[in-house]
Queue: 3 jobs
Job 1
Amino acid sequence: MLENFDLMDDLPSATRLSFFSSGMLGTAALPLTDAPLRAIAEGISAGRTPSLPARIFDFGDVRQAHALMESDRALGKLVERV
């Protein structure tokens, strides 16, 4: 599945994506083919790579999710299901 993943095409239109740009990514010094995304995803899936658990909220619980985020008690990613 990951080989068919296209970040910009596969994100739903209402999804916001935050990232920092790296002038080196995609250059000869750091080619995209060397990016470890596949190894990270496979490691998490197989349980070899630890990850913080995500908390998933239904859209109706957006206030609860926001309150948790503002309380600084959130561990891992917070996901809002639309």
Job 2
Amino acid sequence: MSLPALSTDVMLPALPAIGDDLGAARRNDVQFVVTALFLGLGLGQMAFGPLSDRFGRRTAIHTGVVLFMTGCLMSVFAPTFEVMIASRVLQGIGVAGPRIVIIALVRDQYEGRQMARLMSFAMAVFILVPAVAPALGQGILWLGGWRAIFAMLFAVAAIAFAWFALRQPETLPVARRRPFSPRTIGGAVLEILRIRTALGYTLATGCVLASFVAYLSSAQQIFQEAYRTGALFPAYFGTLALAIGCASLMNGRVVLKHGMRRVAMTATVSITLASVVSWPLAWAFDGLPPLWLFMAYMLVVFSSVGFLFGNLNALAMEPLGHIAGVGASVVASLPTFIALPLGALVGLNFDGTMYAHIAAYAVFGAGAFAAMKWAEGEGGAPRSRDPVRGEAADEKA
């Protein structure tokens, strides 16, 4: 489960070196090394859920990891920037396998508190990876150059593949497998588009993810070029990653008291208001507020994001229980396709100031709030269907 985060964050310190060595036309073009992975991830997520329902969990995960390893080898030997981008798309397609199927594999074996315990353990590892990945990438860059980073990713994937192959039995019996066809995926997409609640929360997830893509694609330039943090970039990046992780863990308790909808609404309002307040402050400092002020603002934004992802995904999936496998793939993929062009547009317009980013976070936060309000309007899910709170709690609210 940590492979997507590791493959995204570990090469952030190496982006300038990759662009210089492979001849990126413009400085901001190195951001495609990040966004190409998200493109592949969106494409792969559409397919791996239904594939795992047809051919089994082990086969789907093995296939994904092999594709990811192939993409890593392409990156190690990439002669041009175009080959590098193609290899990153392939890595994204491959890593979508474990990203999607592991959750189904756990659900095949466990439910209730036992499933929550295992997923909490996995989440703890997942939170740790973004916090340490840039520092790991920085160390490898110093010791062996940027190509060694992709060699490390290949080695990690190979170890995961071998351990998984030896230790993990198949969890989906042949009798429970379902046929795979593009028509199945297309039908699920059309059904989600017809269900207002599912579509609304999927659109909201896309808006939140867009702000995340915008940040990830330009984080190295923000910290190392605009704020000149140098070798301390991994420390600042890790601090914000931990903010998301801590908020995600806190959400497990907060949501039981206040419900998914209320928590999600509050978080989007926090992002929007913090951005609206921070934008004139950016003007006061010619587009680049002091680092401490920028970090304070981003801690508010990223803590709010930590409260959003899990809740929005659960709310989007709530009316899709009858197509859970395919529905999970679609609900994971559509936000990526929404977020990718929006986030990339913001990142590519980075000019050494924070005007574009802060304004975009305000717009994306407001868009997520509007999508959620629309989802809860006429035709949305009834209040009593919030699985965390239950009917009585909603009536009380």
Job 3
Amino acid sequence: MAKTFEPENRLPNMIGPGTKIIGNIETNGDIRIDGIIEGDIQSKGKVVVGPNGTVKGEIKCTNCEVSGNINGKVNVSELLSLKSSSNITGDIKTGKLTIEPGAMFTGSCAMDNVAHSTSVPPKK
């Protein structure tokens, strides 16, 4: 059987200020957004939305740090960190959540650590 080759991405992808992308983004590495994305983002790494960054779409990733604006669903398998300047409108699903005072969030939040749980199931 052939093994699929995925190049190792050591440098983060960056969307700079003044840049607007309309379309979906899929990456195996980390990505930092300081511009505007209108579309979904899927990353096997960390997504950072900078203070001037805006995402209008769904985000699916391993870890996420938000200082800017998100309008859409956020699905993070490990840690979602909302900084004081963050503003999210949409539903959140994450394993762990940190929120700094001043962060704004409108939507529902579900924390799901079932996949990471090592606890004993309840007795019947």
